[in-house]
Design brief:
Radius of gyration of chain A: 27 Å
Distance between the termini of chain B: 84 Å
Distance between the termini of chain A: 43 Å
CATH topology of one domain in chain B: Dna-directed Rna Polymerase Ii 140kd Polypeptide, Chain: B, Domain 6
Helix content of chain B: 25-40%
CATH topology of one domain in chain A: RNA Polymerase Alpha Subunit, Chain A, domain 2
Largest sheet of chain A: 6 strands, antiparallel
Number of strands of chain B: 55
Oligomer: heterodimer
CATH architecture of one domain in chain A: Beta Complex
Structural class of chain A: alpha+beta
CATH superfamily of one domain in chain B: DNA-directed RNA polymerase, subunit 2, domain 6
Order of helices and strands of chain A: EEHEEHEHEEHEEEHHEEEHEEEH
CATH architecture of one domain in chain B: Beta Barrel
Number of helices of chain B: 28
Number of helices of chain A: 8
CATH class of one domain in chain A: Mainly Beta
Shape of chain B: globular
Largest interface: A-B, 48 and 40 residues
Strand content of chain B: 15-25%
Shape of chain A: flat
Strand content of chain A: 25-35%
Chain lengths: ~325, ~1150
Amino acid sequence: MPEERNQPLSYLNEFAIKQDPEDYGLADDVFSIEAFKQKLHIVVVRNDEDGLEFDMIGVYPAIANAFRRLMLSEVPSMAIEKVYIYNNTSIIQDEVLAHRMGLLPLKADPRLFSYRTEESPETGTEQDTLEFELKVRCTRRKDTLKDQAHFDDIYKNHKVYSGHLKWLPKGKQAQIYSESSVSCVHNDILITQLRPGHELDLRLIAVKGIGKDHAKFSPVATAYYRLLPQIELNREVTGKDAYLLQRCFSPGVIGIDENERAYVKDARYDSCSRNVFRYPQLMDAVTMARVRDHYIFNVESVGALKPEVIFVEAVKALKKKCRAFIDEIEAQ
Amino acid sequence: MVEHGKSGSNVEATVWDHSDSKEWALPIKPLEEKWKLVPAFLQVKGLVKQHIDSFNHFINVDIKKIVRANALVTSDADPLFYVKYLDVRVGKPDIDDGFNITKATTPHECRLRDTTYSAPITVDIEYTRGTQRIKRNNLVIGRMPLMLRCSNCVLTGKSEFELSKLNECPLDPGGYFVVRGQEKVILIQEQLSWNKMLTEDFNGVVQCQVTSSTHEKKSRTLVLSKQGRYYLKHNSMVDDIPIVVIFKALGIVSDQEIMAHIGLDARAQNGFGASLMEAFNLKIFTQQRALEYMGSKLVVKRFQSANTKTPAEEARELLLTTILAHVPVDNFSFQMKAIYVSLMVRRVMAAEVDKTLFDDRDYYGNKRLELAGSLISLMFEDLFKRMNWELKMIADKNIPKVKAAQFDVVKHMRAAQITAGLESAISSGNWTIKRFKMERAGVTQVLSRLSYISALGMMTRVNSQFEKTRKVSGPRSLQPSQWGMLCPSDTPEGEACGLVKNLALMTHITTEVDERPVMILAFNAGVEDIREVSGNPINNPHVFLVFINGNVLGLTINHRQLVQNLRYMRRKGRMGSFVSIHTSYTQRCIFIHTDGGRLCRPYIIVSSGRPLVQQHHLDELQRGIRKFDDFLHDGLIEYLDVNEENDSFIAWNEAHIEPHTTHLEIEPFTLLGVCAGLVPYPHHNQSPRNTYQCAMGKQAMGMIGYNQKNRIDSLMYNLVYPQAPMVKSRTIELTNFDKVPAGQNATVAVMSYSGYDIEDALILNKASIDRGYGRCLVYKNSKCTVKRYANQTFDRIMGPVKDALTNKVIFKHDVLDTDGIVAPGEQVLNKQIMINKEMPAVTSINPLEGQNAQVPYTAVPISYKGSEPSYIERVMVTANAEEDFLIKILLRQTRCPEIGDKFSSRHGQKGVTGLIVEQEDLPFNDFGICPDMIMNPHGFPSRMTVGKTLELLGGKAGVLEGKFHYGTAFGGSKVQDVQDELVRHGFNYMGKDIFYSGITGEPLEAYIYSGPVYYQKLKHMVQDKMHARARGPKAVLTRQPTQGRSREGGLRLGEMERDCLISYGASMLIMERLMISSDAFEVDVCRTCGRLAYCSWCHFCQSSAHVSKISMPYACKLLFQELTSMNVVPKLMLENY
């Protein structure tokens, strides 16, 4: 990150966020692609199990927001859309069961499937449909001892998990995919509970869709950004106050040196709780701000796609939308 | 320090002596976990224990008393004939299975089968048949509907597992009846206390009235003052009787003796002189003369029976039984009655001088609550008496007849009358008791099962007898004496405001206990029998009169000692813990009450400035080696009723204990009721908001009990994913609301958004709805019976009909199974048939003589109505009480929240969904949290629901910490602690976060107050209300569009709308709306006679020469015809237009 860059700031005052008086924001900016290219930086900070964290620096909020919105609602994923209930003698209602099935995250890569169209038949084709079945029957265990009271010991299948789902390959699907590549992301999602005599017999149809249609098609658990915090100490804070100050921020934000003097160690992971305003003696000691064009993105995938793929898909989606828009204009 | 009521000036009341003043300097340590006494109390007493106690008292004690009092039935025809009831019992609930075979039943079976949950009433009798004396045991005289969880109910004493085996929710409180499949509650009825003198100003006349109530009689007696003279007024006498005449009739003949009763001081003598003169002027000097005078003033009875009593004898009878019926008279000695009357006169005389001595009718110590037990006992006694009277009539009629078989009265005892009487009274709510001329409607109500809380709230409801339409503020306003007994928040708005009340959490309603042991104790404690002293001591200012249940017991010189001793004996368990003793200094009386229907509540006893309950007691309670009853038994806690509460000094908490304090509040939150207990931080809210929440909590959807899936109710709303509130209260835990919740914790952002949030509208997140927020299940049922008729015909159910051409089942029968009833799991659409029932055309008489003649059938199908389809949850086929087939179908709909659905927080803040927004358009914060709901901040300033902001803060901290916070009334988690928790998790201490606009992507300028708030989905949903019509059905009579949504009715253009159009001058529009679009009709009018013609023919003129056609509203034409039929001739004069 180039330090010398003149960073536009928004100041976190006690009761409101105030813009830098020098900063006119977008009002004066003339968009040029060259300047944009030059300003734009993307730094991947973390990419692990928990998700992807990357910085997008030097863009307008509209652009950053567009990616966020696209990840939430326009990047497709597969989810169960139709549930054929052949038998359901459990206490859960058919509609509620179907709704719960729909919310199960599937591992299937949506890029390998196409959307269902008007023409495709009721049962779907192998290009646009995944089929599963759920056949569970709860029974009483025969080998139980007399005094056992735990449900696990006396009942079999009394809890229905997502792992009970069985993939039914359609056409040539069995040659392309494996069960582990299309089934549920987690095998331990509790769907419902049964008691002896209860039975579920369902056929589930998963299709490709987007989050705009239903939240179950959203590929992310959450995708959001925040602005980079910036903290400056206006005066020296020492002693007890220094520790107090340290506690006003997230751990690791404020450091205290050997002279018991507080200094800003790393503002990046501050939660911007503005708790210094709780203490009158510290109120004036800190200036808190956020860098207006430095977006820290967080993408947490539901599991079907890797977060970086989701982002790239979002970029593709934006590109496609722009293309379509340009085509519309040019067609005029 | 809470000082109740009027006796505030009498500090001396119950001050203990203290020589050691140093102890006062030490602060009293607050008792930790004192609230644990509340669950301990509820364990023994329960929330609906008053109903159950009262009913138990009736079926175990009172019913035996009633039968004993009416034990003997004799006949005029045979002096030797008698029927004597030896014993009566109420059995265990069972159900008639036909052929007099009974089978034990459960409440849930009765609910499902539309039968009554009842038990047989059996008696042992002894009677004569001819010359034989016969004993018969276990004779059923009727069936008693049983209250759930009463002592005879199958549910009593069952464990949770056993209850679930019986299909019953273990959290269900019981206390209601199941009558004809409906759950019925007998509401608690509030009444003015009986057997109590009430002095009041009635339109300028000072009067003292007593409503006497005994088992036999109810009557009202008044003593009033008119022009300086005193009179006695009673319904049975046409005129007011001069009071001296009454005294003389009661056997106190000499004027001096009368004066000794009234008082011998100068003021009393001056005040009473005119009354004495009046009797002198009437020349009444002897008892006989006085009785004759009274006899001349008797109301003439309509049915003069053939008795030969003289008017004087009748007057004496009246004095004996009716006037002041509750005052005992033994062996025609009217002394007690005379003393009682003299006391009434004294009260009137005193009140004339000092206006402050008037009694307050609205004071809760002057009220009694009537519960199910006493109401049913009135009804049963009436029915039992009627049965005995009828037996007597039958005996009178049949004994003289000479028959082959001897007259056996048992053959004429029919159980149906008592059964039907009780059943219909409970199911209709009409309480008609002839001997008291009592006629009350609406005593029972159907138990509202909208939510668990609504059912529980109904069990604590108190109904006042006041007329709702009258514009009086007194009975409606909150009385200080209601403190702790009735919930100050929970009352409906509108006409019943303040008249319908709810009990507070720890209120108990007493049941009657025997007064005789208390009387003996009182005499032993130094009360002197008033009959044994002359008039003088009564007038001594140091002598206090002692009353027991409104009757004079005696007098005492040392009243303070007496009260103290009696209370001490109560604490030691020598008399019932619900006996109340209190002193009235203004009347110089000590009142002891043992009667039923008093409100009372437990308090910790404070002695010498220290609460008797110590920390080690509470520890013992926690360890389970001490129960609530042990506290009572050890004299650490006692029950105070309203009157005694007013005679005590009760500290609000330990810090408020002062030297003269007598009691300590157990927990302040118990002064609220069940419904108000749901509100977190109610003490921070503007009080009407808590009242609104009390009304709305009853409409919230959620769970209604663990057995909700087994019920087939006519309407049931359930939430798909109900949640326990993040911010709980002690009351919530005590009422088990967290186990059967009604609502969900929504993450709320308090900000404005889009303009679709004006007027309290809410913005909902579409993704939240997709994930199941606010999703609810609506269950409805539809049922039918398949009957057999007297003429050997019966209803039948036919299978689905196939289309002749396509050989497919027709659309209407598409969901039918082969047996003609819908299959579970099917989706039914509008107008589809669910039960294809057919009924024989003729059911009354045998229409066809031939054996195998074909009976014509008409189709009476049960079809589905509703624009949205439903699913069949369950189909039940059973038999009802009349042994007809009963088919019940349970229908289900799952509904997502939509625009217009009503939501409410627990602070009386309701709103409808204004807009449903995509998740990406909603603001999000630094943690990626997106609100489920956006609430406009304008909802706060005018409503002042600070409790809601605290709930949000507590909820937020609770979510972060992974625990529940408490918002208990007058307590709860402290804001400081909650804020510290927020800070610990890196959140702003004020609960305000930085949000980014989901639309522009920029941070919002303001910090947004956000966090979880418990929201209830209310039963009002758009889908049930939306309605529009272009064309549709018309009423048959008027040919105008039908009314109401259910009949697909038209939208009325009312008078005010019409006025607008008139003033605007839109005459053609009026014409169109009021006639053309409604009931335009062409009529023929004869221009010569002005009458209506028919088919261009005037029947009056016998011509068609001058008939014109005009159009007019059909209703107008109908009016003309109706007028004509009443010999009024309307004539129409036509002119060219």
